[in-house]
C-alpha cells in the first residue's frame, strides 16, 4: 500500500555526453509525449555547463532538471566547484551525489557524500544518493554489508522529517555501462535491504516514504521487469537515456509497471 505514495521516477544521467546546443532539442522532443504519463516523474541530469539551457528548455513542462554533482559549501575559494546555492538559484531540483564514477575516479567518500547530501537538503535540492558496490562482493551477505554501510554513512545526521525527501539510487558498479543489468530478483533483494536499513535507522514511516531506484544498464527492454519489483520506485539510466525516444519509452514502461503494481494491490 505504502508504495503507492511513491510516484515512479525515470532519471536520465547524461554524464559528460551532451553539448549545450543539444539539450533543448531533446527536451522539446520528449515534452509532449510525456504528458501521457502524468504519474511518472521525469528528471534529466546534465553536466553543469548544460544546466542553464536545460532549465530554460524545461520551463512550463513537467520535466525536472538535476545536476550530476556539487560541492557542500555555499561560497568561497573552491576553484572549479559548484555551489548548492548556485544550483538552487538556477532552478535546479535534483542533484546526483556519490555516483559510482565520482567515487571511483574522483575519490568521493561516504563522508563527502554525507556533507553534500546535507547541503543539498538545505538548498531545496533533492539529493539522489548513489550507492554502489565498489568492492567486488564475495557473496550476497558481503554485498548486503557493503550496501548497508554506505546507506548508514551517507545519511548520518539527517533527521527523519528531512530524509523522507531523499532518493537513494542503488547502482552495482559491475552493471553500469556493461549492457547487462542486474537480475530483477537480485536488484529487489538489495533494494529491500536498503529499505530495511532505513527502517532500522529511522522507522517504517520513513522507510516507506523514501524513494529507492535501481541503476545500471537499464533500457526499455528490461525496465518493466525491474520496475514491477515492490521496492523499485524508479530507474537511473545512463547510456540508453541519451536517446530521447528511449527516455519516452522508459516513462511509458514506468507507467505500465505502476498500473501492474496497483492491480496487484487490488487483488489482495
Ligand atoms: P548506464 O549508467 O545506464 O549506462 O549503465 C547508469 C548510471 O551510471 O547512472
UniProtKB/TrEMBL annotation:
Q: Enzyme group, top EC level?
A: isomerase
Give the Enzyme Commission number: 5.3.1.1
Location within or outside the cell: Cytoplasm
Q: Which GO terms describe its cellular component?
A: cytosol
Record InterPro entries: Aldolase_TIM (IPR013785), TIM_sf (IPR035990), Triosephosphate_isomerase (IPR000652), Triosephosphate_isomerase_AS (IPR020861)
Q: Which GO terms describe its biological process?
A: gluconeogenesis; glyceraldehyde-3-phosphate biosynthetic process; glycerol catabolic process; glycolytic process
Task: State the name under which the record lists this protein.
Answer: Triosephosphate isomerase
Answer whether the UniProt record assigns the keyword Isomerase to this protein.
yes
Give an example GO molecular function: triose-phosphate isomerase activity
* Catalyzed reactions: D-glyceraldehyde 3-phosphate = dihydroxyacetone phosphate
Concerning Pfam families, the annotation shows:
TIM
* Primary location recorded for the protein, binned into one broad class: cytoplasm
Q: Share what the entry says about its subunit structure, partners included.
A: Homodimer.
Domain of life of the source: Bacteria
Q: Which UniProt keywords apply?
A: Cytoplasm, Gluconeogenesis, Glycolysis, Isomerase
**Gene3D superfamilies xrefs:** Aldolase class I
The pathway to which it is assigned is: Carbohydrate biosynthesis; gluconeogenesis; Carbohydrate degradation; glycolysis; D-glyceraldehyde 3-phosphate from glycerone phosphate: step 1/1
Record family assignment: Belongs to the triosephosphate isomerase family.
Asked if ATP-binding is a keyword of the record, the answer is: no
SUPFAM superfamilies the record matches: Triosephosphate isomerase (TIM)
PROSITE patterns, A to Z:
TIM_1 (PS00171), TIM_2 (PS51440)
Amino acid at each position: 500500500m505504502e508504495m503507492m505514495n511513491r510516484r515512479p521516477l525515470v532519471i536520465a544521467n547524461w554524464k559528460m555526453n551532451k553539448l549545450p546546443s543539444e539539450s533543448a532539442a531533446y527536451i522539446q522532443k520528449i515534452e509532449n509525449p510525456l504528458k501521457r504519463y502524468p504519474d511518472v516523474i521525469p528528471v534529466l541530469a546534465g553536466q553543469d555547463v548544460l544546466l542553464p539551457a536545460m532549465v530554460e528548455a524545461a520551463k512550463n513542462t513537467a520535466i525536472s532538471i538535476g545536476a550530476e554533482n556539487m560541492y557542500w559549501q555555499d561560497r568561497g575559494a573552491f576553484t572549479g566547484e559548484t555551489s548548492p546555492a548556485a544550483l538552487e538559484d538556477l532552478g535546479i531540483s535534483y542533484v546526483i551525489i556519490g555516483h559510482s564514477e565520482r567515487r571511483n575516479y574522483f575519490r568521493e567518500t561516504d563522508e563527502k557524500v554525507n556533507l553534500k547530501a546535507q547541503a543539498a537538503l538545505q538548498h531545496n535540492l533533492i539529493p539522489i544518493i548513489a550507492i554502489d558496490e565498489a568492492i567486488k562482493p564475495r557473496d550476497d551477505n558481503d554485498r548486503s554489508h557493503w550496501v548497508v554501510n554506505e546507506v548508514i554513512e551517507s545519511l548520518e545526521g539527517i533527521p527523519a522529517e528531512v530524509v523522507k525527501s531523499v532518493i537513494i539510487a542503488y547502482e552495482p558498479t559491475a552493471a553500469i555501462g556493461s549492457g547487462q543489468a542486474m537480475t530483477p530478483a537480485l536488484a529487489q533483494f538489495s533494494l529491500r535491504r536498503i529499505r530495511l536499513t532505513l527502517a532500522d535507522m529511522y522507522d517504517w514511516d520513513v522507510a516507506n516514504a523514501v524513494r529507492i531506484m535501481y541503476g545500471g544498464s537499464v533500457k526499455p527492454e528490461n525496465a518493466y521487469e525491474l520496475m514491477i519489483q515492490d521496492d523499485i520506485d524508479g530507474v537511473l539510466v545512463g547510456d540508453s537515456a541519451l536517446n530521447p525516444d528511449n527516455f519516452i519509452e522508459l516513462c511509458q514502461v514506468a507507467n505500465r509497471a505502476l498500473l501492474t503494481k496497483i492491480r496487484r494491490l487490488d487483488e489482495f
